[in-house]
Design brief:
The structure holds 2 protein chains of 2 kinds.
Chain A (H helix, E strand, L loop, with lengths): L5 H8 L1 H19 L4 H76 L4 H25 L10 E3 L1 H10 L2 H6 L2 E7 L6 E3 L1 H18 L4 E11 L5 E9 L6 H4 L19 H11 L3 E7 L3 E9 L4
Parallel strand pairs in A: 2-4
Antiparallel strand pairs in A: 1-3, 4-5, 5-7, 6-7
Helix pairs in contact in A: 2-3, 3-4, 5-7, 7-9
Chain B lengths: L1 H10 L1 E6 L3 H13 L3 E6 L2 H11 L3 E4 L8 H9 L9 E5 L9 H5 L5 E3 L4 H12 L1
Parallel strand pairs in B: 1-2, 1-3, 3-4, 4-5
The chains are: A alpha+beta, B alpha/beta.
Chain lengths: 306, 133
């Protein structure tokens, strides 16, 4: 959001009084000059127009201020939700990991005992896979718990994006997706935990690929921007031309366990984790979508010291 | 042949598992003994663990951290303060999620080896092997 001038803030704060005063003045002018003279009429018209513009500006400012307040409130609710989940997850993790450890050790014993029975080996391998999957879910839950420490380094974002993208070559080709990259050449470095940021892009690319079942364009754009306090930040936009997300679902898109896809292995945690990671990097994330047209995810990450 | 058997038996390392999860002790014991390289003793609480450690002086102790009545940290402290058990390497096998949560005390008493549950058997054996060298 743009920084407001002191004058504008003053007007906003005292807007209603000013409007009242303006009305009194207008009434007085109208009353005093209502001689039906052409110039007088013009003057009154001009004054009314000024009054209208002034009132409209005031209403717009109020509206923007309310929207900003609502946004901040939503952000707060979101971070409170994540914090609460992090606390619960940390507590539950211990209780879940113990039985998982028993399953994994039990399976290890069965595997060595059943070395010549292919069918039973397959059964126990599936059990092991499921136990490790459950462990992964617990880890995922914890990955946005506040206690996880980041390994921060000053790095360029482009290689991190490209490396993540290279893991998905096969799926991109298979789904007939065209990747359109537009990287700015003057990007500052970012202080980040590259593994965590890779996780962010993995989640975003996976979502985009899944949304484009019939093929499409995966767009990745980077640019340098300035924030409210005139600090540089890097904006990364990941877009797809997939099915899009309906408006009522966009509102809950960062909620843990909220999902629009009911496929195997989908935990509904991807975007919650993504948001958690971006928050930890003091960044921003926003999503825009139009059903049938596609989705755009905008990430802002503060620039490091150059 | 007899000579070979005796030699194998002598080279077996004794591992003590102290963990309140009975089934975990049971399976780890089965798995480690199946390799033929270990003899495994188990205890389901800290007090029993300490008395077994004093009596049998195992080559290595696998120690859980969160246990009722006496925590793994307290057990490690008592073992380190006893001249019979002070040099036995300890590996914490814990369901605590990450190192940061364990606390500095655990490092102080020689328990600076950690394995996080659910640990795979080969990882556990590698860890034990590296600490027994």
């Amino acid at each position: 959001m743009k920084q407001k001038s002191r004058f504008r803030l003053k007007i906003e704060d005292n807007g209603l009084i000013l409007i009242a005063l303006m009305m009194v003045v207008l009434y007085w002018v109208f009353d005093y000059l209502s001689s039906g003279h052409y110039l007088t009429r013009t003057l009154i018209a001009v004054l009314v127009i000024i009054y209208g513009v002034f009132t409209q500006t005031l209403i717009n400012s109020r509206k923007a201020a309310l929207e900003e307040k609502e946004k901040t409130r939503n952000k707060l609710i979101q971070s409170e939700k994540l914090a609460a989940l992090g606390t619960v997850a940390a507590g539950v993790a211990h209780e879940v990991k113990n039985p998982l450890a028993i399953i994994v050790q039990g399976v290890a014993f069965l595997k060595t005992s059943l070395y010549d029975d292919v069918r039973l080996l397959d059964v126990v391998s599936r059990i092991e896979k499921s136990a490790l999957r459950a462990d992964n879910i617990v880890r995922s839950l914890l990955s946005f718990s506040r206690e996880i420490s980041l390994k921060m380094e000053e790095m360029d974002i482009a290689p991190v994006i490209d490396e993540t993208l290279s893991f998905m070559d096969e799926q991109i080709r298979h789904k007939n997706i065209h990747v359109k990259k537009l990287y700015a050449s003057d990007l500052p470095k970012i202080i980040m935990d590259s593994n965590q940021i890779k996780q962010v892009f993995t989640n975003l690319f996976m979502n985009a690929i899944e949304a484009m079942q019939e093929g499409g364009i995966l767009g990745i754009r980077t640019e340098k921007k300035k924030d409210d306090t005139n600090q540089d930040y890097v904006r990364i936009v990941v877009s797809d031309t997939g099915e899009g997300i309906p408006e009522d679902r966009i509102r809950r898109i960062f909620d843990p366990f909220f999902t629009t896809k009911y496929t195997e292995g989908n935990t509904g945690l991807g975007l919650s984790i993504t948001k958690g990671i971006i928050d930890k990097h003091h960044g921003t994330i926003e999503i825009e979508s139009e059903p049938g047209r596609g989705t755009r995810v905008m990430i802002g990450l503060p620039a490091g010291l150059v | 042949m007899d000579f070979f058997k005796t030699k194998t038996s002598v080279s077996k390392k004794t591992i003590l598992i102290i963990d309140d999860e009975e089934d975990f002790c049971y399976f780890v014991k089965l798995n480690l003994e199946q390799t033929g390289n270990f003899e495994v003793l188990t205890a389901n609480n800290g007090a029993d663990g300490i008395s077994i450690a004093k009596r049998y002086q195992p080559d290595l102790i696998l120690l859980d951290i969160i246990m009722p009545t006496m925590t793994g940290t307290q057990v490690a402290e008592l073992l380190r303060n006893d001249k019979v058990t002070k040099d036995i390497p300890i590996i914490f096998v814990t369901a605590i999620v990450k190192r940061g949560e364990v606390g500095a005390k655990d490092y102080q008493f020689g328990g600076n080896y950690f394995v996080f549950k659910p640990v795979k058997l080969d990882e556990l054996i590698n860890e034990i092997g590296s600490k027994l060298k």
